[in-house]
Amino acid sequence: MPKMKSNRGAAKRFKMTGTGKLRRAHSSKSHLLTGKSPKRMRPLRKGTSVHPADAKRMKILIPYG
Questions:
Q1: Distance (Å, whole) CA 61 – CA 21
Q2: CA-based, 20 to 30 A from 15: which of 41, 45, 55, 57?
Q3: What pLDDT shows up at residue 65?
C-alpha cells in the first residue's frame, strides 16, 4: 500500500502537539508593520492553537503530523 501524501502547504503552516492538537502562527506579521504598535506585535510572536471546528479538516491534510 502506498503512503498517503500530506498537503505540503498545510504541513509548513501547522504542527501537531504531543496531545494531538494543532499549532499555528498568528497572521498580520509579514508586511505593513510600521503602522502596528510594538504592544500589538508582541502577542503575535507566540503561536496559538487551531480552533477545534477547523482542526478536524486540517488533520486530514497532514496525516503524519
A1: 14
A2: 41
A3: 75
